[in-house]
Amino acid sequence: MKKIFSLLLAAVMLSLCALSVSAGVDVKTTEKRIFENGNTVLPYRLVLPENYDETKSYPMLVFLHGAGERGNDNELQLFHCVQYLADTLPECIIVAPQCPANNQWVDTPWANGAYSIDAVPESNELKAVVELLDTLQEEFNVDADRIYASGLSMGGFGAWDLMMRHNDYFAAGVLVCGGGDPSQAEALKDTPLFVFHGDADDAVPVSGSRDTVQAIRDAGGELVQYVEYAGKGHGIWNDAFAHPGMLQELMTYKLSTRYPKEESVEESVEESVEATVSQPTSSEAPAEQPETSPMGWIIALSVLGVIVLVTVILLVLKKKKG
């Protein structure tokens, strides 16, 4: 009886752990919004830090849901992991868009695993996601150096796609049971990536992650971290997003590490002008021996002329008296 009770207790604890990562329908300070980009209507949820301070700069994480959460109710995309993200990253702006029903973040068959971005154009939905993030940066104080992409299943493909097409936009990414493009390894070799997949996945082949990760490592990439769950199938996102220390480490990466900020042309010109003004030219006299101004020379010559004239007059007068 004691053994049975222990097993039941363990089962309950595991269930609670799973629920702490999924079923996030009561996300704190969540705001329902709609973003429209041409003919693409993108419902999304915005999760702001509970005590958002407009004088502070915040990192931003976009979360792309899986195929089962598509629609237009602006609810289903919260079912997996969003609550956990909000609880674990209280000082981060979280954006959870919802892909329309029957559409995909990436227009490729999931059963193929890896795909080629040269053969698959960027979807209207992902274009809208990037434009949405641009718009939010105008509205809120977002740290553009710390914008991150994440996604699971269909959203895992989406996160890979964002990291490959917009590598100069996202500081790092979390890619769960999706598929990438091994031919993009050179572009991704310096990008921090956290990749997760189950080796018994019967929905998205593990090769979708495995081959892309190996290609990145072969290209010299040392910042890709890959966790492959032995004997586990498709639904490994609870374990992945709760991987110890992963989200905290994610937040430490900055885009400027890969793409150092360059001075604008205007700033460079201003600095050059300032430097020229502050530095004396070779024709200028030293500071302790200032040049006499033209006006000074005119005054000196005028005084000398007056003295000469007075002297001449005195001599003439003296000669007349003599």
Describe this structure as you would to a colleague.
- By secondary structure, this protein is an alpha/beta fold.
- It has one domain: Rossmann fold, CATH 3.40.50.
- It is 38% helix and 17% strand.
- The protein contains 10 helices and 8 strands.
- It has an 8-stranded mixed sheet, with helices on both faces.
Write the layout of secondary structure elements.
Blueprint lengths: L1 H20 L8 E8 L2 E8 L10 E7 L17 H7 L4 E5 L26 H16 L2 E11 L1 H12 L6 E5 L8 H4 L4 E6 L8 H12 L5 E6 L7 H5 L4 H5 L14 H14 L15 H28 L1
Parallel strand pairs: 3-4, 3-5, 5-6, 6-7, 7-8
Antiparallel strand pairs: 1-2, 2-4
**Strand order, sheet with most strands:** 1-2-4-3-5-6-7-8
CATH C-level name? Alpha Beta
Strand content: 15-25%
In DSSP terms, counting alpha (H) and pi (I) runs of 4 or more, how many helices?
A: 10
Q: Provide the structure class.
A: alpha/beta
Which sheet architecture does the biggest sheet show?
8 strands, mixed
Number of strands: 8
Distance between the termini: 150 Å
What's the mean pLDDT score? 84
Fold-level CATH name: Rossmann fold
- Uncertain segments of ≥5 residues (pLDDT<50)? 1-25, 281-292
From N to C, what is the helix and strand string? HEEEHEHEHEHEHEHHHH
CATH architecture: 3-Layer(aba) Sandwich
Number of domains: 1
